[in-house]
Design goal:
The structure is a single chain. Helices cover about 40% and strands about 15% of the residues. A hairpin with a 3-residue loop joins strand 1 and strand 2. The protein is an alpha/beta fold. The radius of gyration is 23 Å and the shape is globular. The chain starts with a helix and ends with a helix. It folds into 2 domains: about 30 residues; about 325 residues, Rossmann fold.
Length: about 375
């Protein structure tokens, strides 16, 4: 075959592919109000001297995808808020009980309007006798708590929180124990985060996934593979009696990490305040049928993560460390309606309600005890 024929056949192949790509891109834009490349990659970050980056101050950003339509607001401090953008004053009023939430995108409330986030639901449901509840949400998409500990060490302690609530995402046996920012930390450019450690494969995939042909082809494949029809393909039939745990006595190293976390925080804020840990499992632990979408991230065994969460709940609470594990409740609710989005892999409003419902009585009890001690 001559070069002219090769060029001809290449053009005959390229023209319909381009037409299909442009048609599907237009379909996504018309259907969802945003372009496909804006589905997850948003310019929302700004540099921060203490924790590398934070969410942009005074942000108003609407994110529309084929799964949700939400608007993010931040105040001048870059903290996630409702549309009122309440500022948090360093000088805490005497009649205020201040709770500081730390964590990644789940604490921020990604893919949800503020009123549907577990931070907001919890804050609306709790009370402190004689004081108003004030929430300071430092949740930042993609940010490790170890970065946020650096902010707490240099700046955050000045806000004198009365309680700290930390989101522990993914592996429940691991938690931050100190301020720690590695030399190869992400950088911010035009509001976007760039990781120097990303492999070539990850970088290529981040570009390719913006193709409408790839997106819709992948979506159909995943939909068929995971059987997204209530509990069909849920995979929790694997969680039988053998998934129950009886913690062994050799758990020192696991619990020690949480103790180190608490000691670090107490030293930084210069007093002993209540600390509550909220566990958010990977979506595939709740719905193993979704596991195929995590292959690029080298997922762990969902059954082992389920057991680990139950084990840590028993061990930590036995030691007086408050660890809220909503995994079983998420699994139960997910049989009725998805608690995580199908594509986005963050909580739906239903998932936020489950975690909040599990955490509210625990946090309220802590507040009551804290106030009783204060009056004594």
């Amino acid at each position: 075959m001559g070069n002219r024929n090769r060029i001809y056949f290449a053009l005959m192949l390229l023209i319909p592919v381009c037409f299909l790509e442009l048609s599907l891109q237009a379909y996504y834009r018309i259907s969802n109000g945003n372009f496909l490349f804006q589905r997850v990659n948003l310019s929302i970050n700004s540099p921060d001297i203490h924790r590398v980056y934070r969410t942009k101050p005074n942000l108003t950003l609407r994110q529309r995808t084929n799964e949700f339509d939400v608007t993010y607001y931040t105040n001048s401090q870059g903290l996630r808020t409702d549309s009122q953008r309440k500022e948090i004053k360093i000088d805490k009023p005497a009649d205020t009980y201040r709770i500081l939430f730390l964590g990644p995108s789940f604490a921020f409330g990604w893919a949800n309007n503020y009123e549907d986030t577990y931070v907001s639901i919890i804050s609306e449901a709790i009370a402190a006798v004689g004081k108003s509840i004030e929430v300071m949400n430092l949740g930042t998409p993609g940010q490790p708590i170890s970065y946020q500990f650096c902010w707490l060490q240099e700046e955050g302690y000045k806000y004198r929180p009365d309680m700290i609530v930390q989101t522990v995402y993914g592996d429940p046996t691991k938690t931050a124990t100190r301020c720690d920012i590695p030399a190869d930390h992400p950088t911010v450019h035009n509001g976007y985060l760039y990781n120097s450690t990303d492999s070539l494969k990850v970088r290529v995939l981040s570009v390719v996934k913006n193709s409408a042909i790839v997106f819709y082809g992948w979506y159909i494949y995943q939909f068929m593979l995971s059987g997204d029809d209530k509990n069909i393909g849920l995979g929790t039939e694997l969680y039988g009696p053998d998934s129950e745990v009886s913690p062994s006595e050799d758990y020192g190293s696991k619990v020690a990490k949480y103790r180190e976390n608490i000691v670090f925080v107490w030293q930084v804020v210069q007093r002993e305040i209540p600390i509550v840990f909220l566990h958010v499992p990977f979506s595939y632990v709740v719905r193993p049928g979704d596991l195929s979408r995590w292959t690029v991230q080298n997922p762990k065994d969902p059954l082992q993560l389920l057991k680990a969460a139950r084990e840590m709940e028993i061990l930590l609470n036995r030691e007086g460390i408050l660890f809220v594990n909503p995994t079983d409740e998420l699994i139960s609710k997910d049989k009725e309606t998805r608690t995580y989005y199908f594509l986005d892999l963050h909580f739906t409003p239903a998932g936020n309600k489950v975690l909040a419902g599990k955490a509210i009585p625990i946090i309220q009890k802590v507040i009551n005890l804290d106030r009783d001690e204060e009056r004594d």
